[in-house]
Design goal:
Structural class: alpha+beta
Helix content: 25-40%
Distance between the termini: 39 Å
Number of strands: 11
Shape: elongated
Bound molecules: benzoic acid
Number of helices: 6
Order of helices and strands: EEHEHEHEHEEHEEHEE
Radius of gyration: 19 Å
Length: about 210
């Protein structure tokens, strides 16, 4: 199945380093990041999982649960977690699914056969509290992900869900945002009492509240 932005994230049950997970129950009303990586005991993935464990407090702050997936079995994940702790200085503090039967990998289209016939690519899905897919990213096996970028997108999604704004190129939290072009001047004057800079009728910059 091809997933697209706006689709409901398919539910599943799979075993993980934190025990069996039924996705919808585990996620509840929080945000979630679901991500895959090619295989256990691989160098880039080792750095990714170590970094993500260190960044977990940043995801917690935003009410985002983190769930990883590899198509290797649980005993392999458990042995690999020891290497991650030893080499990255961080203990795995989020569940890593053992998707040896590829149930979730296939449900989320994480295997791209012309890139690799068996391993998952580096897929990322950001799913909102209603269970809707809000971001899909696919990285090649040879490129480790930028987890600051995921936090940046989460900040943008959470902000733009609550105010009639969008975030410009390379925006990071605290910087100016743009007022949605669909907002009339009359409404903009009411909605943004802090004021805004109009560069063009469709390009109005303001400070988010
Ligand atoms: C890695 O995670 O290090 C990796 C996996 C597959 C191909 C290249 C690198």
């Amino acid at each position: 199945m091809t997933l697209r932005l706006g689709d409901k994230a398919p539910d599943f049950t799979q075993n993980s380093t934190a025990g069996p997970i039924r996705f919808s129950e585990w996620k509840g009303g929080s945000w979630a990041v679901l991500f895959s990586h090619p295989a256990d005991f691989t160098p880039v993935c080792t750095t990714e999982l170590g970094l993500l464990a260190r960044l977990k407090p940043e995801f917690d702050k935003r009410d985002v649960k983190v769930l990883g997936l590899s198509v290797d079995p649980l005993d392999s994940h458990e042995r690999w977690a020891g290497d991650i702790a030893e080499t990255q200085g961080s203990t795995l503090n989020f569940p890593l699914m053992a998707d040896a039967d590829r149930k979730v990998a296939e449900l989320y289209d994480m295997i791209h056969p012309r890139a690799d016939s068996t391993a998952t690519v580096r897929s990322v899905f950001i799913i909102d509290p209603t269970g809707t897919v809000r971001l899909i990213l696919t990285y090649p096996a040879s490129t480790g992900r930028n987890f600051d970028e995921l936090l940046r997108v989460i900040d943008s999604l959470q902000l733009t869900d609550s105010q009639k704004v969008a975030t410009p190129a390379n925006w990071t939290a605290g910087e100016e945002v743009v007022i949605l072009p669909s907002i009339s001047k009359e409404d903009a004057d009411k909605l943004f009492p802090q004021g805004y800079r109009q560069l063009k009728p469709y390009l109005r910059m303001t400070q988010a509240r």
